[in-house]
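Look over both lines before class:
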Amino acid sequence: MLDLIHVNPNSAEPIYKQLFDQIVRLIVSGKAQAGEELPSVRKLAEHFSVNPMTVSRAIGQLVDQGWLERRRGQPTRVAPQQTTQQTDNLLHKNLDILISDAKQLGISKTELISLIDKNWGQE
């Protein structure tokens, strides 16, 4: 799992938010399965060279929102999910931002779809 998460310390987005978003995407995409153990907060902090409190904040929010589960004396695990609804929620949030940005830039729906088609295979 650690090799699939990338933290950019120069990003304007807080590191805990980067961790939160990427772990959610791993869960929704099925790359992190229900019951899969997460590395400890200390190990995550060492791997990403960040403060353990930063990792703890991301993990705490993931637990609070039901993405992860913690049980006393056991490692934190990926919680069972209903991914269809969660995938829709993630896409709609980002889609709304994309459409809003396109409208502000004066890009038509046709041009936006063309840009999506052009860039789809480039990632």
